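Quick one: structure tokens for this chain, please?
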Amino acid sequence: MRVVQERSELKQGFGRRITSRLPREVNPTIRRLAVASLIGQTVLVVTGGAVRLTASGLGCPTWPRCTPDSLVNTPEMGIHGIVEFSNRTLTFLLTAVAVAMLVVLWNLRKERRDLFGLAIGLLASIPAQAVIGGFSVLTGLNPWVVGLHFLVSMALVALSMLLVNRAYGRTGRFAVLPARPVGRTLRQLLAAAGVFSVLAVMLGVVVTGSGPHAGDAHAPRNGLDPDLITRVHVAPVYLLVIASAVSLYLAWRRGRGDQLRTAVVLLVAIVLVQGAIGYTQHFTGLPVVLVGMHMLGASLLVIAATNAVDIAYRKA
């Protein structure tokens, strides 16, 4: 009994020594990990696009192994195996970042529940996302499953953006950066822009599911009319442009140095560039380079919209 007690005291002492070295306030390490999470989630979207656009969706034909006999890709699988397995490998890197974030936040888990909760959400979503990705492979790249995989990635991008804002003290209950009052109309317009952004991304996924870039030559399509669903997809895009433009007019009057004005300018710029890429790719036969840029643009749109809405409601 005494030996067990001594071992318990040793473990507790070791634990206290470890936690004593962890941050007790938000520091540069926490901020860097938040940025790393945002960048990593965005890169995962881009590499996922590369998997689809290079027809490497079944480069690893099974899951969780890459082949029935190997955890990793083999030379016989060629470039498709390399592309697909590289995308899978990013999941482990993102998991490492998420675990590191929880570790450095351990002493702040009660004081900064906003940061700790977001970090837990990101970590819990990563394996769930991996399972959805595996299911998409096992179903032969069913377009609805692949679309769900992409939408979850977009949700993780948004969560990562919230984590960055909270870590830098821009928004939330612990915001430290000065902010001017935001009018009700501007808040409502930005909230609408956020909703239109979500709808545009969701319908864009449906458009992709009806198009030619399936991830594999034999992968099924959703059977919808590409032209018709593209027209439906454009409707919230038009509304997004209008809401963003009016928001820019209201935000511009706030003057220089205002973080909300900067956020709205960034949102409008991304909306215009993303719209231009979307139209160009549609009328040029969906070249893979432009489609890849459009997928990156979708991530940047989610980041910008999340940032603008978060700042507008910074004390919520």
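The chain has two domains: 23-176, 178-316.
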